[in-house]
């Protein structure tokens, strides 16, 4: 659930985007708000590495039922901005939001090199 103050800011940003940049930007901003995704310029980003033996799927949301947005090869270095609770994956319920805000990956298959804060 998005924080009410953040929701108001997001709605204002969407309205501003539609006035300044046209409908394509407004649609993108609306999609990000609906997905509850942090802005691309996240204030906190940390590094991690893929530890799975198969490609790690990037998901639209923190469940295996969400759309697949792409994948990372085993051993890939990646950036994560925060963690959320989602579907259990082999005993781990945490999912990481990617540093660019483009999707989620299961924390079960990512070795984080530093502390990862909770998403707000």
In short:
By secondary structure, the protein is of the alpha+beta class. It has helices spanning 4-20, 23-35, and strands spanning 46-50, 56-59, 68-72, 77-89, 92-98, 104-106, 110-112. The radius of gyration is 15 Å and the shape is globular.
List keywords for this structure.
120 residues, SH3 type barrels, 2 domains, five-stranded antiparallel β-sheet, 7 strands, SH3b domain-containing protein, signal
Describe the structure in your own words.
- The protein is an alpha+beta fold.
- It folds into two domains: 4-35; 46-112, SH3 type barrels.
- Helix content is 25%, strand content 33%.
- The chain contains two helices and seven strands; from the N terminus they run H-H-E-E-E-E-E-E-E.
- It has helices at residues 4-20, 23-35, and strands at residues 46-50, 56-59, 68-72, 77-89, 92-98, 104-106, 110-112.
- The strands form two sheets. The protein has a five-stranded antiparallel sheet with strand order 6-5-4-1-7, with no helix packed on it. A two-stranded antiparallel ribbon has the order 2-3.
- A hairpin with a 5-residue loop joins strand 5 and strand 6 (104-106).
- Helix 1 runs antiparallel to helix 2 (23-35).
- The longest helix is centred in the first third of the chain and has 17 residues, at 4-20.
- The N and C termini lie close together (9 Å).
